[in-house]
């Protein structure tokens, strides 16, 4: 009679293979979920950086002019029209209002949906109180102890794409408006 010697296990069992496969699948699914969250963050970051650069460009245009008043076409209240773009923006126009017209044209092309928002969500206000951008407060004639507040806006498909929740509004069901606002003091030269 023959006796069989017990063999040593020479491989993985089915349970071990299934557990390692499950751990791998969970890791891959986590990476996919992370990737789906990274795309809106990257897109918002690009648009927000563009808005920051546009606002900074406008601040520098205003600083170069030395003053920002309703009379020189600088102050643009919410729902008011920006100065129109001249025939050519190269070389830089001499007057502040035409420079702002060139800036408004550049802004309408740089941000998604900005051309439709230019005359309703963009503004340049000189006011005494932060956030007071009503038509009466926005056009204050006082240039001392006032600051300039600039708002730039763009549209995204859903509110989740506008990562600054405090700055999002939903004017229509099909889009959301994201905004960037800066307030700065511009001293006369």
Radius of gyration: 28 Å
| Class computed from helices, strands and strand pairing | alpha+beta
What is the rounded distance between the termini?
Answer: 111 Å
Question: What percent strand?
Answer: 15-25%
The low-confidence parts are: none
Mean pLDDT: 83
Helix segment count?
4
Strand element count: 4
Number of domains: 1
Spatial order of strands in the largest sheet: 1-2-4-3
- Overall morphology: rod-shaped
Please trace the helix and strand order, writing H or E for each element. HHHEHEEE
Helix % is 25-40%
Largest sheet properties: 4 strands, antiparallel
Descriptive notes:
It is a single chain. The chain is α+β, with helices and mostly antiparallel strands. The longest helix is centred in the N-terminal third of the chain and has 52 residues. It has one domain. It contains 4 helices and 4 strands. The protein has a 4-stranded antiparallel beta sheet, with helices on one face. 40% of the residues lie in helices and 15% in strands.
Write the layout of secondary structure elements.
Blueprint: H1 14-65, H2 96-110, H3 114-117, E1 123-127, H4 135-138, E2 147-156, E3 169-172, E4 175-184
Helix pairs in contact: 1-2
Name some characteristics of this structure.
4 helices, 189 residues, four-stranded antiparallel sheet, alpha+beta
Give a summary of the structure in a few sentences.
This protein has 189 residues and is of the alpha+beta class. The protein contains 4 helices and 4 strands. The chain has helices at 14-65, 96-110, 114-117, 135-138; strands spanning 123-127, 147-156, 169-172, 175-184.
């Amino acid at each position: 009679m023959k006796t069989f010697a017990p063999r040593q296990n020479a491989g993985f069992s089915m349970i071990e293979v299934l557990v390692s496969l499950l751990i791998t699948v969970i890791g891959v699914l986590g990476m996919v979920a992370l990737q789906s969250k990274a795309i809106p963050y990257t897109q918002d970051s690009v648009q927000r950086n563009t808005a920051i650069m546009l606002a900074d460009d406008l601040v520098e245009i205003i600083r170069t002019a030395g003053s920002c008043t309703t009379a020189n076409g600088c102050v643009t209240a919410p729902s008011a029209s920006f100065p129109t773009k001249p025939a050519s923006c190269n070389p830089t126009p001499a007057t502040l209002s035409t420079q702002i017209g060139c800036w408004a044209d550049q802004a309408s092309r740089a941000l998604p949906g900005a051309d439709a928002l230019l005359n309703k969500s963009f503004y340049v206000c000189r006011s005494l109180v932060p956030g007071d951008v009503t038509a009466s407060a926005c056009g204050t004639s006082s240039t001392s102890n006032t600051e300039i507040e600039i708002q730039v806006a763009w549209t995204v498909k859903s509110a989740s794409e506008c990562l600054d929740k405090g700055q999002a509004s939903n004017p229509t069901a099909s889009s959301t408006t994201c905004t960037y606002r800066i307030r700065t003091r511009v001293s006369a030269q």
